[in-house]
Amino acid sequence: PASLSPPKHPVLVVDDDVATVELLAQVLEDEGFAVSKAHSAAEARAAIARRCPDLVLLDVMLPDGDGCNLCHEFKTAGPTRDVFIILISGMVIGSQSRISGLNLGADEYLTKPVQPQELVARIRSFLRIRETADALRRARDQLEERVLERTTELQQANEQLQQAAGELRSLSHRLLEAQERERRRLAHELHDEAGQT
Fold this sequence. Notes:
Layout: E1 10-14, H1 18-30, E2 34-38, H2 41-50, E3 55-59, E4 61-62, E5 65-66, H3 67-76, E6 84-89, H4 95-103, E7 108-111, H5 116-196
Parallel strand pairs: 1-2, 1-3, 3-6, 6-7
Antiparallel strand pairs: 4-5
């Protein structure tokens, strides 16, 4: 049997500079990622609609919008809420720009030129975090499912116990009635025998 290769993590590269997109795409494809490309905010939205990536490399300046606002849009939408986003700026930026980008939901903020090895290392780090979070989510779901099963089992056992308790009360009541009838019968027989004697 042929060995199955691990699934490729989808990454979306969004930058209005075609050369930057091609360079980043080549680096990431060489590292085994499945890369989608976009050159504008509209193309990024369309690419995400086709296939939600694990991570987005997002330029801060786009021809049809602000990358920071697009980041915020992705981080507040349902399907893309958990996607890691790395903002990339071609300008020298201060700490306030970084803080602003991170406050809008970015997971990282880098300045061009980006070192390919550093970028790949950061992406792999984010993906390890995602895999750990996914594993925790699966474990939580399994635990919730098991708790639900046990709750159902306990409810059924409780119903059976209540039914058994009801049957026991009924049997006890019948036993008391039988004992009372037997006492009356014995009392009657003793009374009759004593009268005959």
